Amino acid sequence: MPQIRPTVFIIDDDASVRRSLGRVMTSAGFDSKAFASVDEFLAGASLHAKGCIVADMTMLGISSVDLRQVLKGADSALPVIFVTAQDTEEARGAAREAGAAGFFRKPVDTQALLDAIQWTFDNPRLAKSA
Fold it and tell me: How far apart, in whole angstroms, are the C-alpha atoms of residue 14 and residue 2?
């Protein structure tokens, strides 16, 4: 039986960030799907897929911080890694409280982000405890 590859779900309202992160994921050998908002992600992705989410913290509509609660309510094990241009103590606290698997300031150190993504793939219990 073929192994299901994990997918990195990229959620960012900036198209250039989505394209850039998509290229990074492809070059690292990860499958990825990009969405312009949390609402778009919820409408077009399986909440029970194998993988993780990389989401900008500040977007219109359902926030990515609220996304973690939506995932928990749907019994989804997808961990969320937050990225933000507003690296404040409040943002860090919100990410921590939301059960973030990671927190990165934009512009993102791509190797550190890839390491965090791989870590979520290697630690399936992480998603279940978040």
Answer: 34
pTM for the whole thing?
Answer: 0.92
DSSP, collapsed to helix, strand or coil, labels residue 121 as helix
Show me where the domains of the chain are located: 7-129
Q: Render pLDDT for 41-79 as a digit per residue (tens, 0 to 9).
A: 999 999 999 999 999 998 888 888 889 889 989 999 899
Q: Does domain 7-129 have CATH number 3.40.50.2300?
A: yes
CA–CA gap between residue 69 and residue 66 (Å, rounded) = 5
Burial 15-53 (b: 16+ CB within 10 A, else e): eebbebbbebbeeeebebbbbbbbeebbeebebebbbbb
Beta sheet of 102-105, edge-to-edge order: 31-35, 7-11, 51-56, 80-84, 102-105
